[in-house]
What we know:
Oligomer: single chain
Amino acid sequence: MIEVKFTAEKPDGQAISGSLSVSSFGEGKKKIQRLAEKNQLKVKAIERKVTYLYKAKKGTDKPIRGEQKAYSKKEVEDALSRLGYKVLSVNRKLFDIQRKPPMADIVTFVKISAELLEQRLAYGEILSLLINDTQNKTLKDTLKEINNDLKKGADSEVTFLKYQNVFGKFTAYMLGLASKSGNMSEIYKATAKFLERRQEFKKSLRSALITPAVTVFVLFLTIVFYVGYIFPETAKLFVKFGIELPPMTAFTLDMSDFLVQYIWLILALSVIPPVVLWQLSKSKKGGLIMGQMMMKLPVLGPLVHKTLIEVFCRVFYTLYSGSAESIEPIRIASEATGNKYFEDRIKNVAIPLMLKKGTGLTDAFTASGVFTETALSRLHSGEETGTVKNTSLQLANYYESETVYRLKNLIEVIQVSIAMIIMVVMIMLTLVSAETATVRPPTPGTSNQIYFEQNVG
């Protein structure tokens, strides 16, 4: 997100200004133009907040260097002058690229904040402590700006959402919401738990899917290189001199000819499908399809499905305060899952049923089709006894224990399977190489021997 400031003039000549946070400068200009047309304003200037590098000196002290975000060079010079500095230089930073902080740093920030909030430390003091101890530059600068905005009385939710590109949309929303709630410490703890679980699940998913896929792909390339390039150099030498090849060697040579002839087609079929799926997942419709497919994968699908329900229930537990205020927690919890299909079914099926037809919580969730029978049964019991909040937490903890255990076992099985595949491939390559080594020139007196002598001798 970036900040854009505009200056405009009303029909009566009165000058006004304002600012807004947008994802790009182009989007900011469009929003300002729409605002101007709606309110009959004449836009005078549109400025983007960027980073400036400055060098300044106070009295006889050694000059200092630093950077500051501002809408203009003059704004930085005026701010330094007010602090008693003599401005030596102010230049716009040419490459203002901010990399997103590692998830581990964000989790650490949220966890430490939760612990200090439990000790009843003022949030301003917590931010000051963490700013000094944070090593990641992007996160440090972000916390500084948040601290400055909050000290000026800015709305906490708006402030944190300005930096959703750093924290992530859901995390920024939760942290902004926490400052307005009466249970700031609990929301921070729940957010930290959510981030840890998501990080752990992604790591496990990578171990279960991505790492084996990469391993198999590299193994495939190795086989293609061996069969298509290294092996033919020896085998074709025997063919050239009319030497009869053993069965495995002959078969491997045929495979080599096939690979060489269709190498680009084989590579295209290996690379294009993953790229297409990745691009498809970025579109709205593709995201829904991919989200549904992830929940229906054999073996892994049920674990993904239960993890989504766990995340949903954990966030819902944190935000839910009563049946009269359940819609917003349900909406936010669905977004927290990160699965477009799950989110869509909640937002476009469950919530409309609750709002338009007054359908109960469990019946609406049943209609969405994204909850397991176990989850629906437990939530139904909680709805009848008025303990939906606690039931959600119990359900989240239950699915966390189950998925962690089952996913760990699945990863071990996959790793053993990959090891077995590698072993079988290596044995096959060794057998082919060993068989090739046994090839001998034809015996004396045969037609093959005469052909051999004519070509070699």
